[in-house]
Specification:
- Pfam families: NAD_binding_10 (PF13460).
- One of its GO terms (biological process) is import into nucleus.
- This is NAD(P)-binding domain-containing protein.
- Residues 7-164 form the NAD(P)-binding domain.
- Helix 1 links the parallel strand 1 and strand 2 (28-33).
- The protein contains 9 helices and 9 strands.
- It is globular.
- The longest helix has 21 residues, at 88-108.
- Helices cover 42% and strands 18% of the residues.
- It has one domain: Rossmann fold (3-Layer(aba) Sandwich), CATH 3.40.50.720.
- The structure holds NADP nicotinamide-adenine-dinucleotide phosphate (NAP).
- NADP nicotinamide-adenine-dinucleotide phosphate binds next to helix 1.
C-alpha cells in the first residue's frame, strides 16, 4: 500500500503514521503538511524511501499534486477547532475548504480512495458550526467522485496527553475512542479495499464509532 497522510502532526495523524510505518504491507507513506512529522527511526525510514515528507501551506495544496501521484489512498486527519482557528470563518476555511481542496488535488492526481476523519453527528444541515462544517466537508469530498470514500465518524476521541479540558471532562462519563484505534482502523479499511475492491460495498462508506473500535480492536 502507498498512502498519503494529511494532518500527520496531529493526535490522530501521528497514530495513523505509526500504524502505517509499522506495517510490512505498506510500501510508502507521504506526509503533506505545513511542518514535517517527527517519528522514531525517521532517518532510516526516509533513506529507505518508505517515508517522504512534503512541506507546504495548505492554502497552496493544489500545487502539491505531484506528492499525491501513485498513492492508493489518502488518509485525512486534518482539522481544527473554532477556538484554535479564532473565528467561525477561519474555522471553516481550515476545517472545510483546505480539506476539500486537498481532496480535489488528490482526485486530479488519480488517487482512487480518500479517507476522512469526520465526527459523530456530522450533518451539512446541523445548527452547530462544528457538525455542519464536518457534514459539508464530507459532501465536498464525496462530490470529487473517488472510486471509494471512507468517512469515519468517531464520537469522543481519547487524545491521550493531548486531550483538551473539555475532552478530559467528557471522559469522566464515557470512554473515548483512542487515536491508536483510529490509526489501526484506517489501515485495516484501506487494506481491505485494496485487497478486494469488488466486494467493498458502496462507493461511499460511513464508519461509525462502534465499527471503528471493532476494527481498531479497542
Ligand atoms: N476531539 C474529538 O473528540 C473529535 C471527535 C471526532 C472527530 N474529531 C476530528 O478528528 C480530526 C483529527 O483530530 P485530532 O485531534 O487528531 O486533530 P489535531 O491533533 O488538532 O491535529 C490537526 C492536524 O491538522 C493540522 N492543521 C490544523 N490547522 C492547520 C492549518 N491552518 N494549516 C496546516 N495544518 C493545520 C495540524 O497541523 P499542525 O500540527 O501543523 O498544527 C494537525 O496535523 C479533526 O478533524 C477533528 O475535528 C475530533
Amino acid at each position: 500500500m502507498k498512502a498519503v497522510v494529511l494532518g500527520g502532526t496531529g493526535a490522530c495523524g501521528k497514530a495513523i503514521l505509526a500504524s502505517l510505518l509499522s506495517s510490512s504491507a505498506v510500501e510508502r507513506v507521504v506526509t503533506i503538511g505545513r511542518r514535517p512529522v517527527t517519528v522514531p527511526d525517521q532517518a532510516q525510514l526516509e533513506q529507505s524511501g518508505k517515508l517522504v515528507q512534503v512541506t507546504t501551506e495548505m492554502a497552496a495544496i493544489a500545487q502539491a499534486e505531484d506528492a499525491f501521484k501513485g498513492a492508493d489512498v489518502v488518509m485525512c486527519a486534518f482539522g481544527t477547532t473554532r477556538k484554535q482557528a479564532g473565528s467561525a470563518e477561519a474555522f471553516k476555511k481550515i476545517d472545510q475548504e483546505y480539506v476539500v481542496a486537498a481532496a480535489a488535488t488528490a482526485k486530479r492526481a488519480g488517487v482512487p480512495h480518500f479517507m476522512y476523519i469526520s465526527s459523530h453527528g456530522a450533518s451539512a444541515s446541523s445548527w452547530f458550526l462544528y457538525l455542519q462544517s464536518k457534514g459539508q466537508t464530507e459532501n465536498g469530498i464525496i462530490a470529487q467522485k473517488f472510486d471509494k470514500v471512507s468517512i469515519l465518524r468517531p464520537g469522543l476521541l481519547d487524545r491521550g496527553d493531548e486531550s483538551r479540558f473539555v475532552e478530559k471532562f467528557a471522559m469522566v462519563f464515557t470512554s473515548g475512542c483512542k487515536t491508536t484505534t483510529i490509526g489501526e482502523a484506517m489501515r485495516e479499511l484501506a487494506a481491505a479495499y485494496l485487497t478486494d475492491k469488488a466486494s467493498s460495498g458502496d462507493a461511499v462508506q460511513y464508519v461509525d464509532d462502534a465499527t471503528i473500535r471493532r476494527l481498531g480492536k479497542q
